[in-house]
């Protein structure tokens, strides 16, 4: 597949990894670091090395897996490790992992000695179609997601579906939600095609189109001043439900499961506050419920959810702002919505 060019860097698909070794050598980096988590060092690093003709000339930095480790304490540990290994400004960091690793590794690289080069090799579906594209790096502070971060582009991104073979089904389904979002906000035909796609078969998933959509949007508006906000469809309510679930549920929702709930609620909001039609809402609701487990949004959580939505960093002047569908495949942004409508949309989801 043809690489996609984005502002200042290139996204390579499939077989692109083969060329990475040459690219590293031609840049004459003083040192190469590979950042992994405990799972990707076990299942993805051997695949990565085999693609690069048994590549060995790097130092490995391994962290614990999971969102709870995407924080400043881990960054400090990794910055110190880089110092111990005498990393200088001509060093390269390769982030080999899911969104936690590409977000945190990008942040560490973009700030270490005021910035060193980094490359993203995303290994989850979510990080391939979303987190590794667009230049947002970041870490969480307490329960606030992505509170601190930078907009810094990697030198390159390598998207290789071979990695997805070891990914658990629930993680595949989580990433698939971002692809559904790309269809809903920008390409109705793609959304229709996804409906007939088996998400459990990585070879059948059209990752390329998803990355193309995200890349088009972030190239037009890299710093999220306007158009990029459409990528937040489903996320205002989805993030709140995700945070609440993380803090209160024994088996918390994944990001994808939470934003899928957000799609249904925000599609319901789009009926009253934008031009989405009732049949379109019905279609979206039915499709989401056919794929994602039904969750009960507890009535006693509604106030907390509203508070969480108010703390969303995309708000302006204290107003909760939504990106809403005008139709399936078309999205608008900066929509103010009455609190009563938000609560009705939660009730709508529960009633399905
Ligand atoms: N920067 C952005 O624009 C952006 C966009 C969307 C999401 N994100 C961030 O991405 C993160 C979520 O990413 P994620 O869902 O990839 O989570 P993750 O990085 O935690 O990965 C999920 C799990 O899968 C494991 N894993 C990774 N690759 C594997 C493989 N090939 N085989 C087996 N196991 C594997 C990981 O070790 C982890 O346990 C969140 O922190 C979110 O904020 C960032
Ligand atoms: Zn998301």
From TrEMBL:
* UniProt keyword terms in alphabetical order: Cobalt, Lyase, Metal-binding, NAD, Nucleotide-binding, Zinc
For this protein, the Enzyme Commission number is 4.2.3.4
What GO biological process terms are annotated to this protein in UniProt? Answer: aromatic amino acid family biosynthetic process; chorismate biosynthetic process
Q: Name one GO molecular function term.
A: metal ion binding
Gene3D superfamilies assigned to the protein according to its UniProt record, in alphabetical order: 3.40.50.1970, Dehydroquinate synthase-like - alpha domain (1.20.1090.10)
Give Gene Ontology CC terms: cytoplasm
Give, as one word, the top-level EC class: lyase
3-dehydroquinate synthase N-terminal domain location: 63-172
Q: Which cofactor does it need?
A: NAD(+); Co(2+); Zn(2+)
Q: Residue ranges of the 3-dehydroquinate synthase C-terminal domain? A: 175-315
- Which InterPro entries does the record cross-reference, listed alphabetically? Dehydroquinate_synthase, DHQ_synth_AroB, DHQ_synth_fam, DHQS/DOIS_N, DHQS_C
List the SUPFAM superfamilies hit by this protein, alphabetically: Dehydroquinate synthase-like
| Top-level taxon of origin | Bacteria
Describe its function: Catalyzes the conversion of 3-deoxy-D-arabino-heptulosonate 7-phosphate (DAHP) to dehydroquinate (DHQ).
Tell me which NCBIfam families the record gives: aroB
Q: What is this protein called?
A: 3-dehydroquinate synthase
């Amino acid at each position: 597949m043809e690489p996609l060019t984005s502002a200042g860097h290139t996204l390579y698909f499939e077989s692109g990894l083969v060329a990475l070794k040459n690219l590293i050598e031609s840049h004459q980096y003083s040192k190469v670091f590979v950042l992994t988590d405990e799972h990707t060092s076990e299942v993805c690093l051997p695949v990565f090395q085999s693609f690069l003709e048994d590549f060995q000339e790097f130092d490995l930095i391994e962290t614990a897996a999971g969102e709870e480790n995407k924080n400043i304490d881990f960054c400090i540990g990794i910055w110190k490790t880089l110092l111990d290994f005498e990393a200088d400004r001509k060093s390269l960091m390769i982030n080999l992992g899911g969104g936690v690793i590409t977000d945190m590794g990008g942040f560490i690289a973009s700030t270490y000695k005021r910035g060193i080069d980094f490359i993203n090799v995303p290994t989850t579906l979510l990080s391939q179609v979303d987190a590794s594209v667009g230049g947002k790096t970041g870490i969480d502070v307490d329960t606030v997601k992505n509170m601190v971060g930078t907009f810094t582009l990697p030198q390159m991104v390598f998207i290789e579906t071979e990695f997805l073979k070891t990914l658990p089904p629930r993680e595949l389904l989580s990433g698939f939600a971002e692809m559904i979002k790309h269809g809903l906000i920008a390409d109705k035909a793609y959304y229709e095609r996804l409906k007939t796609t088996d998400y459990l078969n990585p070879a059948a998933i059209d990752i390329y189109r998803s990355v193309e959509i995200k890349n088009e949007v972030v190239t037009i508006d890299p710093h999220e001043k306007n158009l990029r906000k459409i990528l937040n469809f489903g996320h205002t309510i989805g993030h709140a439900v995700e945070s609440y679930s993380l803090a209160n549920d024994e088996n918390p929702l994944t990001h994808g499961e939470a934003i899928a709930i957000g799609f249904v609620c925000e599609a319901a909001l789009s009926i009253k506050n934008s031009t989405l039609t009732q049949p379109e809402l019905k279609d979206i609701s039915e499709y989401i419920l056919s794929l994602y487990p039904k969750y009960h949004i507890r009535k006693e959580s509604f106030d907390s959810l509203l508070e969480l939505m108010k703390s969303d960093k995309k708000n302006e002047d204290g107003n909760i702002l939504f990106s809403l569908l005008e139709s399936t495949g078309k999205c608008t942004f900066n929509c103010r919505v009455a609190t009563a409508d938000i609560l009705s949309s939660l009730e709508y989801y529960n009633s399905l």
